[in-house]
Amino acid sequence: ANNWQGLIQTYRPYLPVSENTPVVTLLEGNTPLIPARAIAAKIGRGVKVYVKYDGLNPTGSFKDRGMTMAISKAKEEGATAVICASTGNTSAAAAAYAKRAGMKAFVVIPDGYVALGKLAQALLYGAEVIAVDGNFDDALNIVRQLSENYPVTLVNSVNPYRLQGQKTAAFEIVDVLGNAPDWLCIPVGNAGNISAYWMGFCEYHTSGKSSRLPKMMGFQAAGAAPLVSGEPIANPDTLATAIRIGNPANWQKAVAVKESSGGEFNPVTDGEILDAYRFLASEEGVFCEPASAASVAGLFKVKDRVPDNASVVCVLTGNGLKDPTSAVDHSLNELKQGIPLNLEKVAGIMGF
Ligand code: F0G
């Protein structure tokens, strides 16, 4: 749309807002659904693949969808401060939207396990960032207690308004495709987003906007895959720090999504995540952060089970620039360095 007003304005009838809700927005949403022909070619059999590039949101991740709702509702309820635990993206989004609302943001992060782009964002947006000696699950525990004991509103995905905002990504997909895809592939950490997408697909289906519901395929990093094993993991580990989570807060919801959609949870190794991360950049021209590439790594893993001619959407949750360290670590060896400033030499490297 030429005059995009943000997702609350666009999807107002589907959201728990009224005229009294002060809309706090950075004009998030309306992200591109990009045809992914190189991915589709690896599957063949007429399968159509799209990536939902939510890394193009204002703070660079899908969290903006949840945060425009959570912060608008917190403001409506008179909150003056918000708090979240985060592997990075939630903290950046909370910080930005809280700032626009004139609220204070506190964020608690696992020390040493947040990608530098996200950390810098949260600090620059003016949040109070507290790095604790513990993982995300520990951080979520402490912010839950803080929000119960002090006048700060919790804006993690246990806040129901977060999922309300995030469900709009499913609306956008159906609005573009004219129906739901046959499969949705999505990275899963705290399991809020998969639950939100399912809610969105179900609501649109109920209102007659789509004739089918997708099979929800959730992918977790192999070292942080409690929904695959069925057991919380005390020490989750993966280079995809965004989804380095051992005990997802939305566990029950995610299991219900799997069951009602006929979906699955499958693990992808860090090696598979990195291969997909590079493939997306080098073959599709789409740069996402490692955790996001788990959706494509997962699709590659189960590709032989995709029905002929099916449509598949892979969700790319965050922008590649969020995690410059991973980007540099996995690209710098390609740099032609130490080259003299000489026409023939440079042309020679160019292959002329
Ligand atoms: N992808 C990215 C880039 C994320 O940042 C997250 C979660 C997920 C996927 C998983 O989504 O938790 O709804 O299953 N990041 C949270 C954060 C935990 O703090 O930024 P989920």
From TrEMBL:
Keywords: Amino-acid biosynthesis, Lyase, Pyridoxal phosphate, Threonine biosynthesis. It catalyses: O-phospho-L-homoserine + H2O = L-threonine + phosphate. GO terms for biological process: isoleucine biosynthetic process; L-serine catabolic process; L-threonine catabolic process; threonine biosynthetic process. It holds the Pfam family PALP. It is an enzyme of class 4 (lyase). InterPro entries: Rhodanese-like_dom (IPR001763), Ser/Thr_Dehydratase (IPR050147), Ser/Thr_deHydtase_PyrdxlP-BS (IPR000634), Thr_synthase-like (IPR004450), Thr_Synthase_bac/arc (IPR026260), TrpB-like_PALP (IPR001926), TrpB-like_PALP_sf (IPR036052). It comes from the Bacteria. One of its GO terms (molecular function) is L-serine ammonia-lyase activity. Its cofactor is pyridoxal 5'-phosphate. Pathway: Amino-acid biosynthesis; L-threonine biosynthesis; L-threonine from L-aspartate: step 5/5. The modification N6-(pyridoxal phosphate)lysine is found at K63. Pyridoxal 5'-phosphate binds at N89, G189, N190, A191, G192, N193, T317. Its EC number is 4.2.3.1. Residues 82-125 form the Rhodanese domain. Belongs to the threonine synthase family. Catalyzes the gamma-elimination of phosphate from L-phosphohomoserine and the beta-addition of water to produce L-threonine. This is Threonine synthase. It comes from Waterburya agarophytonicola KI4. The lineage of its organism: Bacteria, Bacillati, Cyanobacteriota, Cyanophyceae, Pleurocapsales.
